[in-house]
Records
---
Amino acid sequence: MITGYFGQATAAAVRTFQATHGLPQTGFVDAATAAAINNASCGGVSYPTYPTYPSNPTYPAYPTYPAYPTTPSYCLLSGQGGAYPYNYGYGTNCHVSIRSISPSSADVGDRITMYGSGFSSSGNTARFGIGIAATNVSSYDNGTRLTFTVPSRLSVYGYSSERVYETTYPVSIVNSAGYTSNAVSLRITDADDNDNDGDLDISSVSGPSSLDVGERGTWTVNVRGGRTDYLTFSVDWDDDDYNPYYPYAQTDTFFQTNRVSHTYYDEGAYRIRFTVSDGGGDSDTATKTVRVEDDNDDDNDEEHISIDDMDFHPDVLRVDRGTRVAWENDDNIDHTVRSLGFEYFNSGILDPGEDYSHTFNTRGTFAYYCSLHPEMRGTIIVE
């Protein structure tokens, strides 16, 4: 049929001709096919006409045509020579392939470049195995180069995520038409630049490095990462005798900010330990040292309480803030001096003749007792 239109029948006839002349059956009149047609026409070689085509079931109909192109140039000419009716941008309808990856080993946060063909101008997806590492990635140089950043986490099946581990991943690209490339290997050498023991980490701790006795300090702890949405955050203040801080739960996963406060009642250097854990088994620890000094040491008044005859004398004592109170065991048996409630002070066992002192830098009423003889009670009122 003479239609003047290069349609299905014409493409099928070209493939028939190419098959009989040992040429790739593309259905497209390239230079080699044109030369063969010219030689056949000049030599008087007969060529099967289109009407014979329907009787030959071995030739696929046009809808299966996208399986034929194997050369990237046909994709680059999409919509411009009859290969495809529309042109949505270079590589849109191409089969995609990766030739190389650079670098072949990287850390989380590094930039990776893929070299190959068939990448879409936009809308490419980078995969690490079954996990999605990057979406809507653009390509350059006519769909032959694509760059993305190694993430710290992968999206899996669209509804969950997992951290990137220090291992080798098969990396592939899916272009915007849904074609998936071959896979190349990428070795992850450092899964977390800030903390090699897991994706969950304490990114920073800020707070005072020195305090006065009785002064309240506040520390800010920033936490990020985690495999689950349920994190446990705890603090060891390094002064077990005073106001222990118990763990509590956090529910936000990323970039948490925790503010915690504490008061020290004795001089010394304390090493505070902050710990965060998640439900997946990851944890991280950070420490901060604070030095506690008594700025009233030179001016302290001192008051005395006698422990005698199973009693404190006096059992109620009023003092000014900064006063040092000394208990002397004048009895003939052992006693202790221990605060009620929070352990602001605890003498331990005092043998007969021993003494214990504590400086009161915080205003308030402090009840205490003898832990060996609980009926022995006393009170210090700090004004």
---
Amino acid sequence: MTVSIVVRAIETDAERERKFYLSEIAFSTNPSPENVTFWQNYVTTLPNYRPEQIRAAFKGDLQVGGCDIYERVMHMGEARLATGCIGSVNTDPEQRHQGIASALMRDAIAYAREKRYAFLMLDGIPKFYYRFGYTDIFDATMQDVDRLAILAQQPSSYTIREATIEDAQSILDLYKEQQYSYTASFTRTLEIQQHALQNRMANTAHLLACDASGKVHGFLSLGKEADIHASELLADDWQATLALLQYHAKQFAENDAPATLRYLLPDNHPITYQLIEHLQIPDTSNVGGPNTFGSVLSQSYHHRHTGWMARIIDLPAVVEGTLPEWQARWRRSLAHWSGVLRFVIDGEPFALIIDGTQISIGEPVEQRGHILHFSQQAFTQLLFGYRPITWFLQENETKVSPDALAALSILFPINHTFITRSDYF
């Protein structure tokens, strides 16, 4: 007899411990009881933690898998969108290929609809989540920086020290300044930042770049053992960036030093522009043509239906929540056009009414405006700027007037999503 799979919130301490044990053996390369305890404490002491956010799957009395659903407020410019962030999806190794992960996904969607989240987001394995309506929204870009180009610079005027809990506000200010302009940043409070400092991994250093007066201008998260890959880099000026990079570059023995150091930064990040502006390879005598080498090498990783993905849960909540950003984009463009853009997203309609300099949401009246049909997954990518509007129109063989196309290009720009390491879940 087939035993049905039931997914629900954890109810006992034993269920909670079992869930974090299954997560540890699923995701750790070196599972240990200490890690189980660490992550259980980390999650259950998060500000605004609720036990219902930890979901577990059961076959009869046997707990066979689980996941976490964190509730966050996602930024999209001026928009604020309630988002469920799914992490640690796991299955008991002895119970795989029995539909447990699928049951967890169906439960997550039902849970998100109950909470009226605009989106669900996750960082997913290949070829699985797409079947549940998720689609790619962000591909990680790494900046590989020539180590000798860093060391060739004059020493920064700033000093480096380890962060303490008292530095939480300074780090939070840097996060807000650097991340809030990107889609998929999240509202972060002082309590959240303090929690991150108090509960950091033992093998991670949080470093600050400070000026002569002691004011914090930069932050670097770095493994305490020599590691070419920094977890996170924030800085509000070049001297802070330089101080942190020089510290990183000096963590290696010269006979075993890497050629490059790696930072998770998009190509349009202010720090990336700083790196390109200031760094230069000191010796180019043994390199090829000038267009095939550099002090900064950008690498983006594209894998269809893999990695950072999102799914619309409540289209009206998405549209209502995004309206302030659409209005801001239109206002900044100084555009002046009147018309109606009628959208149909997998059969669900809404309309954007543009009247000169004003935008509002209206009823999609028949025979008015341009009709734009999108799948839920295509519209999700459009919202996150993953593809240009022209790509989707071409794919759908949709024709619009030049004025409407110009309006759509303003409302749906590309390349505005970035998920920094401290926002992973």
---
Amino acid sequence: MTTYSYDRSIYEAESGDILMALTGESLITRAVSRDREPDFTKLVEMIRSADVGFTHAEMLFHDYEPTPAYMSGGTYMRSDPHNIAELQWMGFDFLSTACNHSFDYGEGGVLKNIENLRKFNMPFAGTGRNLAEARGPVYIETSKGRIALLSATTSGPPPGRAGDQRRDVQGRPGSNYIRHTVEYVVDKPTFDAIRLTSQGLHFEEQKERRRVGGFGAPLPPDTDTEFYLVGLWPMYESLSWVKFTLGAKFERHSTPHAGDLEGWLQRVRDARGMADWVICTMHNHESGNTEDEPAEAVQTIMRSCIDAGADVFVGHGPHQDRGIEIYNGKPIFYSLGDFFLENDTVLLQPQDNYLGQGLSWEHTPEQFYNTRSANETRGQTVAPRRWESALAMTKWNKGHEFAEIRLHPVDLGFGKPRYQRGRPVLADGDVAREILDRFERLSALYGTKVTREGNVGIVRP
């Protein structure tokens, strides 16, 4: 009788080591494959050298076939579908697509973006024809094993949330939106004044017939110490509701919608059992006490995904870097900032945007962008941190053991003309130091130390 040994390794993936190239959001509108600056080609070579490359697609890839949805401000994001191939050329293997711009061109834009991503064979996660598709993982096969990507957003217009299917009604195209409640703790005079305002404007009457934005349950009853403010959205791009609580001092808190979070965690746990590696990513604009800190709901979601089996969590959305936490031995990037920032060379904008700037249908895109930025004197054009970020080369050793993050600072050309700036190159000098200083300062909030080797920041367990 022949005796077999089943303890020998036969697959490379069994070694449990991998190198991931992770970035923040790519607002790409221009081709890059002909660019040849040494600091750009070195960056591309690093991405290609990884076993897998990830970026967030902040653009919808289409040729303006879908009609624009209504939104109150912002850029209607659109990029030529051929730029999908440009991202592939750089070494990116898959994209996340859930964000506040997923619904810029309505359901048609969601579906056309999906169609073009599939046309170019670019795997993606975060949007779908219904909620099940939007929540679900996408898998790619690599020499280091099967990798799952899952994507969500906490920011976006309410209609952009994907809907569930029924046996008798189709689901709604959209993004994997995790709703949340924002709680403001205020003193008694403020509490009484806001509640009186709510009663005087008859917001209170809506509570008898209105559910919390489709949250799936009636609003909790008011008490002497807490109530929900109904009738106002806290901001146009957040599907959240505001709760006021009586307290001794002013504070702000937030909690994710339990059903939305559990629905996504179910898919994370499923991916854990179906892949060698699990990457979770989320778009979020919400902040804590300062812009540098993520909201409590964001931290809860990201840590919960790690607990559910994710190997790494990559945040993006606030257009700036935030800190890095090593949570239960797994890295969480609370935000990697802009990797491409070319939203002021989007080819066309809808008439609504021109009207919002006091312009007519006779005005041109250049006039729109000049007016919006007050001739480059306000907004992101005068905020250096919007044009600085890092490529995070993240490594695990054999045995699935997290080894290190190497942060390579990236310069997007702050101060250059709009038709040049926005493409990443490796940073140097003062820009590189400023980026690493920021990561060091913000990561220290979570007990994470960032050391340096020249222009590279290093995080180790």
